[in-house]
Write a structure and sequence with these properties.
GCC-box Binding Domain; elongated; alpha+beta
Amino acid sequence: MIKACKPNIEQLRSKFSYDPESGEIKRKENIGRWRAGTIVGTTAHGLYRATRLPSGKVYIHILAWALHYGDWPGSIVDHVDGNPSNNRIGNLRLATKSQNGCNRGATRLSSSGVKGVFRGRNGRHRAEICINKKRIYLGEFRTLEEARQAYASKAIELHGDFSRLA
């Protein structure tokens, strides 16, 4: 939810239906130019679907959580598979800001294409991981696969279910 004002969930349930298997939210009635049965939301910021409610803009994954569980989430709603279009309830979980960050993949600026692995000296591959805003040096490796494995094992140890390896 973008704004602090959170609408009543029972009122929202009278206007919208959520299918936990497909992750879609549909209108139950005609609302302005929108017809009953149409899927709610448009893509916002190039990734996440959002819609406007009288109280303000809300992301679809947060609305899905609220409609399914009957309560607004007290923390970040994370997509387990990292796909912001997959709003199935089995793909949504609560997370801290740090856990949500651990569940990000390699950035498009990654020199190696592998999360936590960078080009090191002499053509070697350097592996590093962050925890609590601190970098931990994991070593330099001859092959990209060795560096990837070093990162993966440490990520699972430190981040558990929130570790994203790709």
